[in-house]
Amino acid sequence: MTNEPFVLAFGDNVVDCYSDEKVMYPGGNCVNLAAFARRAGARSAYAGAVADDAAGRAIRDALAREGVDVSRLRFLPGATAYCVIELQDGDRVFAGANLGVSIIAPETADLEFARQVDALHTGRSSHIDAWIPLIAGLTRVSYDFATIRDRAHIAPLAKHCFLAAFSGGDLGRDDALALAEFTRDAGAHWVLVTLGDRGALLLGACGLSVVPAAIVAPVDTLGAGDSFIARTLVGLLRAEAPEEALAAAAQTAALTCLAKGGFGHESPMDVDISTAMTIDEIYRTTKPAPSPVDA
């Protein structure tokens, strides 16, 4: 592996709308990861779908300015996905969202692109779980499970993962380690559990690595977890020592907390947020992208 691995992020996107300030920022797990992987020195590409509206153009333009390949970005009829953000003492709170046109299945050209990269990143918010076995036959898979704890959900996906990532700020260390051990036993090559201001742990064939958080006074924690995953993934693809990759990821996440938005690129809010649904409604009602059989 070279020092410039090639990472493709496929799936979710949003503009994060700070309604009280009337500004928006490009975001979503996959968009953030593509940007932060590029900042970490990797080649990076993003594949997903937006509408030809102010929000969609803001996502495209921000990624392009970051040096991310957007040749696989689709423009579809409808509205770009958005999320309404409120800040409480520097912590981001998701107040509502609408997924717009963002839930899509990979096209043949996306799969051909995946053959060219060192890893494809996606996650629960992209709703392409049925595609993971096929993608794993083309390249390494990085998957953000976020707050999923259901072992029956984790196991079938974990066996296809080069990196399985979890957000574990709600977990004690023993529970976080148990989650990592289960996921590793299910077949994941590496398992990352971020623990908020308590740092993170990484479990792999060489054992357990732990890193404390780099403590800062946060301005906005939005995107911190995504930047941690991105820097860890890039480090592992470079064959960095796990401790080295984790330490760099902790510093990256801390820096992310010192600026507004996932990775910056503020623009005036140009989104009708009256169609927002609660996050619970989103998870309860969103249908996955068409499966390989149906696509």
Automatic annotation (TrEMBL):
This is Ribokinase. Belongs to the carbohydrate kinase PfkB family. It comes from the Bacteria. InterPro entries: Carb_kinase_PfkB-like, PfkB_dom, Ribokinase-like. Residues 21-95, 173-261 form the Carbohydrate kinase PfkB domain. Keywords: Kinase, Plasmid, Transferase. It holds the Pfam family PfkB. The keyword Transferase applies. One of its GO terms (molecular function) is kinase activity.
